[in-house]
Design brief:
Number of helices: 4
Low-confidence stretches: 1-22
Strand order of the largest sheet: 3-2-4-1-5
Radius of gyration: 14 Å
Largest sheet: 5 strands, parallel
Mean pLDDT: 76
Order of helices and strands: EEHHEHEHE
Oligomer: single chain
Length: 112
């Protein structure tokens, strides 16, 4: 199983991660910080939870809605969530010295 990274930050730009875990292991709780409030753009995460995809990977995923006026990046940096959904603004955060890591980027099929 992939260990949760405590010292760093894994941000996702439209994608998520996959882990292979033996089904006999207990589920690892993981909080995913959303960049907005609950909206259709996050439907894939809800569908993956509903269909049990994260559970099959050994994860119990909780989606955390962004709070108005609060920095969703800081929610992950402070440890309130292990992962988050971000934007290209993460490049600016990285340049400022924040411990952010982009794990995946969104790929649109019509862009090459």
């Amino acid at each position: 199983m992939m260990p949760l990274i405590k010292s760093g930050l894994l941000w996702l730009c439209g994608g998520f991660f996959s882990l292979v875990v033996a089904s006999s292991e207990p589920l690892t709780p993981v909080k995913l910080q959303l960049k907005w409030q609950h909206q259709f753009q996050f439907a894939g995460y809800y569908a993956a939870i509903k269909k049990g995809f994260y559970q099959d990977a050994g994860l119990e995923v909780s989606l955390i809605e962004a709070k108005s006026g609060e920095n969703h990046v800081q929610a992950v940096l402070s440890g309130e969530a292990e992962f988050g959904v971000g934007t290209s603004e993460l490049l600016l955060d990285f340049h400022k010295g924040e411990q952010v890591v982009v794990l995946a980027a969104n790929h649109w099929p019509w862009r090459h």
